[in-house]
Specification:
The chain has 389 residues and is mostly helical. It is 84% helix and 0% strand. The two termini are 55 Å apart.
Length: 389
């Protein structure tokens, strides 16, 4: 039966393996964050370009509307109202008087010569009134025509002025609109250049991201397979998220077996305090990790050595799978072979006690449930949304 120190060393070995996987998750997340930052800038740039295009289209429409707008008739022609009555009465009276005077001058002689009486005088006055009315009526028509022509000219001048003003306003609107179009076009050109630069930068970063993702996922899977092969019987993978809590109970002497620790875990879950308990246990382990590792050094070296051996086995399986892909994919064999080389280099660097110790110390402040979340992240990895478009 394994001793307490051996069990603790095995638990720490599991956490060390999870820590390595968490580190690989951080590498993927870091590369993804850089990619996402560029993608956010690209989306923003595209949005700004779309706004520029819409604004340019709106301004062009306003120019078309201004050019198509008919010239409006402005004002109203002045009414000419010269009353005919005064003219007629003036003509009648004037003709009557003039002819009456002429008759008085002429008639006396006629009376002497022909004996014509006063009847002629009044007939002459009446004829004079008729002639005067006709003459003055003609004058009225001329005055009306003249005034109408004047009113027409005034109206035409007003229309021409109003049209000129409207044309000037439209031209000013068009000139201003063209300035806006020029400004927006320059902005759009600048944005398009920025977008082209960002797109190139994104493609370069995408290559880096894919390389890091493939490498880290390969490392994480290899470590995960090694953990399963070596320690699944020590602690069920479904309970790895509680490992801090279990380690803490072992180190503080509260339990003597993993089974007892799991019973405490179940009790904590029943009271819904497991999250805080794990967090508290993680903090306690973090503060005493150096002391614990010193005490467990021999057992840790044994467990780390066993895990390193299992890593080597898992690595060989991974490399064999990649070699098979190398044959199957043909055209992509170069990239697959390169990935295999990088994966072997990375796994070789991890396959020793010091690397496992470093990973454990690096992630000692990270709770076990977070480590398992990181494990789930890489095992069920899903590409960012913008790579699925």
């Amino acid at each position: 039966m394994a001793t307490k120190n051996e069990i603790l060393a095995q638990l720490y070995a599991i956490k060390a393996g999870l820590s390595i996987i968490s580190q690989e998750k951080d590498k993927i997340a870091g590369a993804e964050k850089k990619l996402n930052t560029i993608q956010t800038k690209i989306d923003s740039c595209k949005s700004q370009i779309a706004r520029c295009d819409q604004e340019i289209a709106n301004v062009k429409k306003s120019i078309d509307d201004a050019q198509k707008q008919p010239l409006t008739m402005f004002g109203q022609k002045r009414d000419v109202d010269i009353k005919k009555g005064p003219y007629i009465w003036f003509g009648i009276i004037s003709g009557f008087v003039v002819f009456l005077i002429i008759a008085f001058i002429i008639v006396p002689g006629l009376i002497e010569d022909y004996g014509i009486g006063s009847l002629v005088i009044w007939l002459s006055a009446i004829v004079g009134a008729v002639i005067g009315a006709f003459v003055v009526g003609s004058m009225h028509k001329k005055d009306v025509a003249k005034e109408q022509a004047k009113a027409e000219q005034e109206w035409q001048d007003e229309v021409a002025k109003a049209r000129a003003q409207q044309k000037q306003r439209n031209q000013t609107l068009i000139d201003n609109a063209n300035k806006v179009i020029a400004t927006k076009t320059a902005t759009r050109t600048s944005l398009q250049q920025e977008l082209d630069t960002l797109t190139e930068k994104f493609n370069n970063q995408l290559q880096i991201f894919n390389e890091q993702k493939d490498l880290s996922l390969g490392v994480a899977k290899t470590v995960y397979d090694a953990l399963i092969a070596e320690y699944a019987t020590v602690l069920d993978p479904r309970d790895w998220k509680n490992i801090d809590f279990i380690i803490f109970y072992y180190e503080t002497g509260r339990v003597d077996t993993i089974k007892e620790a799991l019973i405490h875990v179940d009790k904590q879950r029943q009271t819904e305090t497991i999250a805080n308990a794990i967090k508290q246990a993680s903090q306690e382990i973090s503060s005493t990790i150096n002391t614990s590792m010193t005490m467990l050094r021999a057992d840790l070296n044994t467990c780390f050595g066993a895990l390193s051996t299992q890593l080597d086995k898992s690595m060989q399986i991974q490399l064999q799978a990649l070699e098979q892909s190398n044959v199957t994919l043909g055209a992509l064999s170069g990239s697959v072979s390169d990935l295999g080389s990088k994966l072997q280099t990375s796994l070789n660097a991890l396959g020793n006690e010091q690397a496992l110790t470093n990973a454990l110390l690096d992630k000692v402040a990270t709770s076990s449930d977070t480590l398992v979340n990181d494990l789930n992240y890489v095992i069920g990895y899903k590409a960012p949304y913008y790579l699925k478009k």
